[in-house]
Amino acid sequence: MTSEAETHGRDDAEDVLRIEDISMSFGAVTALRGVDLHLRRGEILGLVGDNGAGKSTLVKILTGFHRPDSGRVYLDGEEVRLRSVQDARAHGIETVFQDLALVDELSVFHNLFLNREHTGGGWFRFLRNSSMRTAARRLLDEMAVDVPSVDVPVAKLSGGQRQAIAVARAIQQRDIKILLLDEPLAAMGAKETALIIQVIKGLCRNTDISVIVIDHNYAHLFDLCDRINVIQQGRVTLDRDLSEISMEELIELMVQSRRRELSEYLPDTPTTRGGPR
Amino acid sequence: MTASAFRRFGELHLQELVISVVALALILFFTVQSPNFFTGDNAAALASFIAPIAFFALAEVPILILGEIDLSVGEVYVLSPFLVEHLNNAGIPVPFAIVLAMVICAVVGWVNGLITVKLHMPSFITTLGMTFALEGIILISSNGAPANPVGSGTLALVLGGATWAEAYWAIATMAILFVMLRRTSFGLHIVAAGGNAQSARESGIKVDFVKIWCFVLCAFVGGLIGILDGYHIGSIDPSTPGLTFMFYGVAAAVIGGTALTGGRGTMIGAAIGAVVLGILEDGFHVIGVNSFAYDLILGIAILIAMFLNVQIERATVRGAGHGSFARMLSFPLSRRTEGRRTEGRRKESVRR
């Protein structure tokens, strides 16, 4: 099964993140069985897989929320241990959760600069709102995010705009190497999806930031990602550059590996009879 | 949460505007009802009704924005002039005794905040306990007997003795707290911590620190109004119902648009709410409503004001609005469906 993953030659110099042989179980349930994964600088990597395949566990390990039972994580070639969310953040790994990230009651520019406010007046820390407004407008223009005004409370914005602002805030507030996006396109309309895809692509084009995206929708991932990893049964079963493969081929490969999985666990499953194997 | 509750008219929010109209309508009503209402003499009386309510409301606003409540500020109000008296009896000169009393009040707030934050107690419980504890301390230390506030002359006049002194202090306090809430980094962090504590924490805001300081601020303002009111009234009474006074303040803040669920509130709204309650109290006295009926009418008036407030909130928050009042207001409010959508999605993500 890992043969697919191994077809990709590793170029360590390019890899900002490399994961080797990560395993993790919760009691009797094994979530990950020896995952290998790598992420190149400035790359958008899509993770797909069924519910319970282990995508979320993997992302939570990278966020510092879970500590794996075994395996190694390398950042820029150096082994790191991500002990906590703060620890992961200090290493430049940031996760954007769509709605939990923003304070609805505050305006767009106050959200963007929350706890990084431009202030004057020394000890009193008076807000320099006009300065923040200008900077917020510039930032959003650069990212091509369209909001009615930076003065509106984020509660008034659409889901796509909120997501874009959450991303903008994450990259503006910290020194980020890797951005993890957990289903950024869930429950979005076509226009919003286009906006987010454009924002994330622009981000990777203009900066050094690498992105890992979890999503269920292959069409979205084909629009967004450079490369895709399929996670099944706690393993990476497929690793392909999307320039090398069409959506039909990918789906066919997924179905095949799914059949192999099934035949391994259930030798008499009817789906394997007369299959392409 | 809200979509158009934020709609602003210059510096005023929609709810502040609505409640200002209510205040003007009440002034008109009482002026028509009695020739004695719109007079210079009554203005002074009105000010002494409004000022204490305004102080309590202003003190509670940051706490309410944080989604907490401080029930004990009323007892701090009763305590502070007695502290001045006790300290003065112990040989400390009055000005120093006042400063020291204020510091002790701030410490009471600090303890409230510390217990709430560090022991993860609901502030309702923390400050309820503090209320009774302070009441006990006041009764024991004063032996239950009323007293006269110590200090006289210019000091007493400035600290509430003069007719308009209390009103000036209230206006100054409102101005300072307004700037704090709307124009400083700390004020922004209060709103952020109250609106979305998790997000605030993730931005590196020390939510616990913000909370504790808001409790300190609240108790400090409570101590200040206690001393001012002592000099204003000219006597201090250990059996003053602090809880009732505190609830006047909370009522004023909520009438002025502060959300009890946190995340939203303004100093100007709280002050206007205090004006409305003060006008009601004073107006009933002036037009000679039976003193037994007075509390009943006041209670109903508060309920109506709150009802209208909740209706406005529904009209603006959830989009649809439930009452005719809400529907009447909702036509100029746009983008309601989107507000509802994000609401639903947020619940979903919280569950996740």
Based on secondary structure, the structural category of chain B is mainly alpha
Distance between the termini of chain B: 19 Å
Instruction: Write the CATH architecture name of chain B.
Output: Orthogonal Bundle
CATH class of the largest domain in chain A: Alpha Beta
Provide an overview of this structure.
- The complex is a heterodimer of chains A (277) and B (352).
- With 277 residues, chain A is of the alpha/beta class.
- Chain A folds into two domains: 1-92 and 183-190 and 211-277, Rossmann fold; 98-174, no CATH class.
- In chain A, 35% of the residues lie in helices and 25% in strands.
- Chain A has nine helices and twelve strands.
- Chain A has helices at 2-6, 55-63, 85-90, 108-112, 129-142, 159-173, 190-206, 218-224, 247-265; strands at residues 15-26, 29-40, 44-48, 70-75, 78-80, 93-96, 119-120, 126-127, 178-182, 210-214, 227-232, 235-241.
- In chain A, the strands form three sheets. A six-stranded mixed sheet of chain A has the order 6-9-10-3-11-12, sandwiched between helices. A four-stranded antiparallel sheet of chain A has the order 2-1-4-5, with no helix packed on it. A two-stranded antiparallel ribbon of chain A has the order 7-8.
- The longest helix of chain A has 19 residues, at 247-265.
- Chain A starts with a helix and ends in a 12-residue tail after the last helix.
- Mean pLDDT of chain A is 83; it is low at 1-10.
- With 352 residues, chain B is mainly α.
- Chain B has a single domain, classed as ABC transporter involved in vitamin B12 uptake, BtuC (Orthogonal Bundle), CATH 1.10.3470.
- Chain B contains 15 helices and two strands.
- Chain B has helices at 14-33, 40-65, 73-89, 94-118, 123-142, 154-161, 165-183, 185-195, 197-202, 207-233, 242-255, 267-287, 291-317, 324-330, 336-351, and strands at residues 8-9, 12-13.
- In chain B, strands 1-2 form a two-stranded antiparallel ribbon.
- In chain B, helix 2 (40-65) crosses helix 11 and helix 11 (242-255) packs across helix 12.
- Residues 1-6 and 317-352 of chain B have low confidence and may be disordered.
- The A-B interface holds A 97-106, 110, 114-117, 119, 124-127, 152-153, 155-159, 162, 173, 187 and B 1-4, 6, 179, 183-186, 188-189, 191-192, 194-196, 198-200, 202-205, 263-264, 335, 338-339, 341-342, 345-346, 349-350.
